[in-house]
Design a protein that fits this description.
The structure holds two protein chains of two kinds.
Chain A: H1 7-15, E1 36-41, H2 51-66, E2 70-75, H3 82-93, E3 98-101, H4 107-116, E4 121-125, E5 134-139, H5 141-155, E6 160-165, H6 170-186, E7 191-196, H7 203-215, E8 220-223, H8 229-237, E9 241-245, E10 256-262, H9 264-277, E11 284-287, E12 294-296, H10 305-320, E13 330-331, E14 337-339, H11 347-351, E15 360-361
Parallel strand pairs in A: 1-2, 1-3, 3-4, 4-5, 5-11, 6-7, 6-8, 7-15, 9-10
Antiparallel strand pairs in A: 10-12, 13-14
Helix pairs in contact in A: 2-9, 3-4, 5-6, 5-10, 7-8
Chain B: E1 2-5, H1 11-35, H2 40-53, H3 57-79, H4 88-105, H5 111-140, H6 144-165, H7 176-180, E2 196-198, E3 201-203, H8 205-223, H9 225-235, H10 237-242, H11 247-274, H12 279-285, H13 287-297, H14 302-322, H15 329-351, E4 352-355
Helix pairs in contact in B: 1-2, 1-15, 2-3, 2-14, 3-8, 3-11, 3-13, 3-14, 4-5, 4-6, 4-11, 4-13, 5-6, 5-11, 8-9, 8-11, 8-14, 13-14, 14-15
Classes of the chains: A alpha/beta, B mainly alpha.
Chain lengths: ~375, ~375
């Protein structure tokens, strides 16, 4: 992002900081009792091609569904910390009645704002704090991650899969475990090699991490990052790739497999509508494959018909509950049995998962 | 056309140039707003209103200005001697590590003890981190631009390691939520720095620390022997050497001083605002790099740094306020850049003048 330079150069850098993005129409008509104002706070740019793009698609879906009943806005590239409190205050000042924050690091500021503004509804993605006017929402990605893993396993010839991962935290560890188990279902003995980037969104770092895996000899690659930079690296060497957060086919159609995607739009619409109707209630929503909140992206053209059929069958089994990926027998990296046959992991175990299943190459403590 | 240095600067120019460059910025910004289909007057008035005049805006501006003030001073302190400390980013991060460590260690003590200890710890760790490139420069002649910059990345890895990759003293391991998502230990209310209220205006304690530091730095560089030597070495390293000044020691001292100021900025982030060591948020904000811009606009004058940090804080906040579906972050960045660019270009006109001369026509 920002690179330091001397005096004038630093200012010039500011000028050119991000000369992307185009404008659309003139600002919408001023608020006159009519539409409810809804706002979204993003940690990255809406053009990140992944996490934030998916949320912004959800925002546009709300506009489409509710039309003139709603007036939406968003703030992008908001750094976690004191800045977000000010952004929230500014949104409240503008008369926004429901505010969605889409990064875990916004949680403390959202909690404080919820207490200070009892007449505004707050919604925090991926967090856990709740107030009468602060709700939480997220989805069980691991089921879709398992299906993504199946695609990677089927695409890999040698069974050596790479994974570009953000942080060694339970959310990501269970994602990697699900991918590994899925890959082993379609390619027995497959391994998943992990590189940590310590960032959600940094295309340069993500690409470097992907390149290091590719030069280590992986022949299929997945990611838990916010941008499609991993696909950019894989495209250069023609290695099958699965993305994350959004349908990213367009970035590398020839190598695209699938991805875990979140379908935020219907949830957002439901919540804004509830705010309009006065029926909004706090709560903690955890969407899944069955209700369509979590899904896999459309398959790429290189995914074989057999693999597609197997994945679709498994998806139905996950939805009906006849299959669960974290059921025993499960072994950890050392080969020791973690979950014996006949038992399965509970929600608490999954939420605090800090160990890798057999076949994952990497350190669940990072580095 | 030639640009040449002014021997004397007329007094009227000091007034006219800032006003003219501000007008130029507004005109340029207006052209751009028109070109992208926005009302220039509405946009500009919203920019000013949300930066400084709306209810609560001034307090918010001070919050954003606080780290910029301290990193701006850090850059000004080093640059005055032509010592290029690009490492305020990492020094701020290490200052936050030191201050939160002190806050956790002294958690059951009284605020009168905890708060000065946090400031001291933040300043010292920042100074130590800044002294590393200083020592390398002084005794191994390495380029401090590169070493101080690289140490920013090292500091980023250190802070990530402390919270994400280890069971360190800073990491909270006790609660269930901390097992779901790794986080630092939250400091108790006794470690919260007091905010000064004046009516609806809230002044962060760190901002006052910054103002006092600016005054201290001004006095140090203007009226002491140390400051005199720094200025001499900055103007001419050779002259300093011939005069018998100990340049190597000065480099280490100035880098440590610069690091201490940035470290105080990190301590203020913990004590004033975050109350927890937050690896992602601290790195994402980029306060260290922004401090370079602040120092440059302030002409390295510590007192001017206060004003510039304040204005830049308002401009940053107002920028987020402008943003929306029809006003992308990139356009906001361009607007902010235009204003800064005009301010800097104006300063050039104060010190240099443009002369038009007829071109010599070569004989046929």
């Amino acid at each position: 992002m920002k690179r330091p330079a001397l005096f004038a150069v630093s200012v010039m850098a500011l000028v050119g900081l991000s000369a992307c993005g185009s404008t659309t129409s003139q600002a919408s008509p001023s608020a006159s009792a009519g539409p409810i104002k809804a706002a979204w706070i993003y940690v990255g740019p809406t053009t990140d091609g992944g996490w934030t793009t998916a949320h912004d698609k959800g925002r546009k879906y709300v506009e489409q569904q509710l039309g003139s009943k709603v007036q939406t806005t968003f703030k992008e590239n908001v750094p976690e910390g004191p800045q977000v409190s000010q952004v929230i205050e500014d949104l409240v000042r503008d008369g926004n009645k429901i505010i969605f924050a889409t990064s875990f690091g916004f949680q403390d500021a959202m909690d404080a704002a919820a207490k200070a503004h009892p007449n505004v509804f707050f919604e925090q993605a991926t967090g856990y704090k709740m107030e009468p006017n602060l709700a939480e929402y997220f989805g069980a990605a691991e089921d879709a991650d398992y299906l993504t893993g199946m695609a990677l396993g089927a695409a890999s010839k040698k069974g050596k899969i790479g994974f570009v991962a953000p942080f060694p935290i339970p959310e990501v560890i269970r994602e990697i475990n699900a991918v590994a188990l899925g890959a082993q279902a379609t390619h027995p003995g497959a391994t998943v090699q992990v590189v940590w980037t310590n960032t959600w969104f940094d295309p340069t770092k993500e690409k470097q991490a992907a390149q290091s895996l590719l030069s280590a000899g992986v022949d299929a690659i997945g990611q838990g990052q916010d941008s499609p930079a991993t696909g950019d690296a894989a495209k250069a060497v023609g290695i099958p790739w699965s993305g994350y957060d959004s349908d990213q086919t367009q970035y590398a159609p020839d190598i695209w497999q699938t991805a875990t995607v979140y379908n935020w739009g219907p949830y957002y619409t439901k919540r804004v509508q509830a705010a309009i109707d006065g029926t909004w209630k706090s709560g903690s929503y955890y969407g899944n494959l069955a209700d369509g909140f979590v899904d896999i992206a459309p398959f790429g053209k290189s995914v074989s018909a057999d693999a597609q059929a197997a994945i679709n069958a498994k998806k139905q089994a996950l939805i009906s509950g006849s299959f669960y990926e974290f059921a025993g027998p499960l072994k950890d990296q050392s080969g020791a049995v973690k979950v014996p046959s006949g038992s399965k992991l509970q929600l608490t175990d999954i939420l605090t998962m800090d160990w890798f299943v057999q076949g994952v190459i990497g350190n669940p403590k990072g580095a | 056309m030639r640009i040449e240095r002014r021997l004397t600067t007329p007094r009227w120019l000091r007034v006219v140039v800032p006003v003219a460059s501000l007008l130029a910025a507004l005109v340029l910004a207006g052209v751009m707003e028109l070109a992208t289909g926005h009302d220039p007057i509405a946009t500009t008035s919203r920019l000013i209103d949300r930066g400084f005049f709306a209810s609560g805006a001034l307090s918010a501006t001070l919050v954003t200005a606080t780290p910029l003030l301290l990193t701006g001073l850090a850059a000004a302190a080093a640059f005055r001697m032509l010592t290029w400390n690009i490492g305020a980013e990492g020094q701020l991060v290490m200052g936050a590590v030191g201050a939160s460590g002190a806050g956790i260690f002294l958690h059951d003590q009284a605020p009168v003890l905890i708060i000065p200890a946090m400031m001291a710890a933040g300043g010292l760790t920042g100074a130590a981190w800044g002294a590393i490139p200083g020592l390398l420069r002084a005794y191994f002649n390495t380029n401090e631009i590169i070493t101080s910059l690289m140490l920013n990345y090292v500091a980023g890895l250190v802070i990530s390691y402390l919270i994400f990759d280890s069971h360190s003293y800073w990491r909270d391991l006790s609660t269930f939520t901390a097992r779901v998502f790794p986080q630092g230990k939250y400091l108790g209310p006794a470690a919260s720095w007091p905010a000064l209220g004046a009516g609806s205006l809230v002044i962060p304690f760190g901002f006052l620390v910054g103002v006092v530091s600016a005054a201290g730095l001004f006095v140090l560089y203007r009226y002491t022997r140390f400051g005199y030597e720094v200025r001499v070495i900055g103007d001419s390293r050779a002259a300093g050497r011939y005069a018998g000044m100990r340049i190597n020691r000065k480099i280490v001292a100035v880098m440590a001083l610069s690091g201490a100021l940035a470290g105080l900025g990190g301590a203020s982030q913990i004590g004033d605002f975050r109350h927890v060591l937050d690896p992602r948020g601290l790195q994402q904000a980029g306060y260290g790099y922004a401090g370079i811009v602040v120092a440059a606009l302030a002409q390295l004058n510590p007192l001017a740094v206060i004003l510039v940090a304040f204005l830049l804080g308002g401009l940053t906040n107002a920028g987020y306020s402008l943003q929306g579906p029809d006003f992308p972050a990139g356009l906001v960045g361009i607007l902010q850049g235009l204003i800064l660019f005009c301010a800097l270009a104006g300063e050039l006109l104060v010190r240099y003048r443009v002369r038009f001369r007829r071109l010599m026509v070569a004989p046929a």
